[in-house]
Amino acid sequence: VSTAMVASLLGPAMKFESEKLQHHVGLAAFLHDVGLYNSGAIKTSKNLMTEDESVMSDEEKAIFRSHSMASADLLKMVKGIDLVVVQAVAQHHERIDGTGFPEGLGKSQISRLAEVVGIADEFARAVKKSLQSAGMNPFVYMESITHQKFSAPVTNAFIQVYVKREFTADV
Question: Which residue, of 42, 59, 119, 147, has the fewest CB within 10 Å?
């Protein structure tokens, strides 16, 4: 739910002015991890809940790295869910520098909607980590990754909404 809230606030800053596009943002962000929860493994693994690969076993990493496609596959079966939403869910862990997953897509291959869900998911996870670790500042973390991992329009929208500064160069 936190990812959906963060993403929904980014929509207007991204100039997603149509009600349909705002709906797509919220729906994709709300359902982005449904495949992870549907796997059943989440019930037996606290490590999957953290989404921190550094503490995961190889089996957990494989489940985690496949969850975005599993989520998209589930959503394809639901009547009425637009393919734009399915694509955003499938790509929400992709990053413009090619380091994301499941396919390692690059800048021009990732939908803008997926980037919005991705940055919202990163921020929601960083806030959650900061509550568990006193030395973790989610804003410092986001500043360290946004310029390399997300396009300038998405980074600028995030900064406008959550930090109130603007980054001008495009990666």
Answer: 59
User: What token pair was written down for 131?
Assistant: 């509550």
Per-residue pLDDT of the chain in tens (171 residues, 90 and over written 9): 899 999 999 999 999 878 999 999 999 999 999 988 877 767 667 777 777 888 888 988 998 899 999 999 999 999 999 999 999 999 999 999 999 999 999 999 999 999 999 999 999 999 988 988 888 899 999 999 999 999 999 999 999 999 875 555 554
CA distance 25 to 14: 11
Angle (CA) 150 78 86, round 5°: 15
* Joined tokens for residue 118: 């991705």
How far does the chain reach from its first CA to its final CA, in angstroms? Answer: 29
Task: Please give the Cα distance from 76 to 85 (Å, whole number).
Answer: 9
Residue for token digits 């929860």?
A: 37
